[in-house]
Amino acid sequence: MDNSFLYTKTLLLVDDELDLLKMLSDILKDAGFQKILMAATGKEAVAEAKKGKPDLIILDVMLPDKDGFSLMEQLRSFTDVPIIFLTAKDEAADKLAGLGLGADDYIVKPFLPQELILRIYAVLRRSYKEDNPLVVLDGCTVDFDRAEVYKGNEIFFLTAKEHMLLKTLARNEGKIITVDALCEALWGDNPFGYENSLNAHVRRVREKIETDPSNPKSLITIKGLGYKLIMRK
Fold it and tell me: Three-state SS across 46-79?
């Protein structure tokens, strides 16, 4: 899966161990992230979160002026960005407390750098999946910003309706979208009578995205219900 859009996100690291902060920053920069903020106390974290507006916060539970759970509640008063707790405590009560407050993940020290990166990828993809202009399917890549499909050495251009159809399905990856819901997305509040037109658009989209349009692996028909899009993992 393409992760390039994730590297545009700003990350805030909060930990009172300065050596660990530098190590985390180096790990993230090596992975491709460039916008990294750092804070060693709860007070600094609040200030950086307000000023820098990070897209994700990695938050240590144990800080010199405030525990991470209290800090998270304070952060939640003005931002709803995803938060990953980072702590040396491997206790179920702590984990449940953090997740109960709305944390998106929980990583226990010591950890492998690759584990941290993969957790960050997963949280960012869940939280900002609609930001990704590129969708990788079984036989092609779709660039929504350019309305183009790249299949082998060929480029196919999407019409406005085809773009809207694919975008609607991509926003709900793996979920069944009913015929009525797709017609409403393409033709507005009065979608009745457009089913044949929708079927025609589906056929044309399959010709552009599928290796074998008669045996689709990405844009799947769910008989009697609607359609779903399967992305390549």
Answer: HHHHHHHCCCEEEEECCCCCCCHHHHHHHHCCCC
Packing angle, helices 18-31 and 113-128, rounded to 10: 70
d(CA 201, CA 145): 20
For residue 204, give the 3-state DSSP assignment. helix
Span 76-101, pLDDT tens digits: 889 989 999 887 766 555 655 656 66
Which residues on adjacent β-strands are paired with residue 13? 38, 58
- Which single residue is written with the structure tokens 């050495």? 153
The overall pTM is greater than 0.70:
no
Tokens encoding 72: 């998270």
CA angle 120, 124, 125 (to 5 degrees): 115
Look up residue 73 and give its DSSP letter.
H
How far, in Å, are 16, 38, 115, 206 from residue 27 at the CA level?
17, 14, 11, 41
Question: In whole angstroms, what is the distance from residue 155 CA to residue 148 CA?
Answer: 7
